[in-house]
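testing teh design pipeline on a random one, pls ignore if ur not involved
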């Protein structure tokens, strides 16, 4: 996935986004690496993992950050479109540990 371009496009559309190597560490990594393993022989398929925040209804139960569902849907549309259309998929050596 074109991570730098995704983050830039989402931020320009006023959707907070960043690259993280620790968001939901165990489960997120398990899902991502399972997906990559399942697609190892399908090089024509692009795949990745995007961690989204709780909805406001979920967040109030966990005292966690949230984002309205409509904003999540709009952001995911941008991410999917850019991931499908962008042929410049380069390695990224940046991100946040938080």
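output:
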């Amino acid at each position: 996935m074109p991570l730098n371009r995704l983050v830039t496009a989402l931020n320009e559309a006023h959707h907070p986004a960043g690259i993280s190597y620790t968001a939901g560490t165990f489960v997120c990594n398990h899902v991502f690496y399972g997906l990559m393993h399942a697609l190892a022989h399908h090089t024509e398929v692009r795949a990745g993992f995007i961690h989204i925040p709780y909805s406001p209804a979920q967040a109030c139960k966990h005292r966690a950050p949230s984002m309205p569902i409509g904003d999540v849907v709009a952001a995911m549309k941008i991410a999917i479109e850019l991931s499908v259309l962008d042929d410049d998929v380069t390695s990224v050596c940046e991100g946040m540990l938080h």
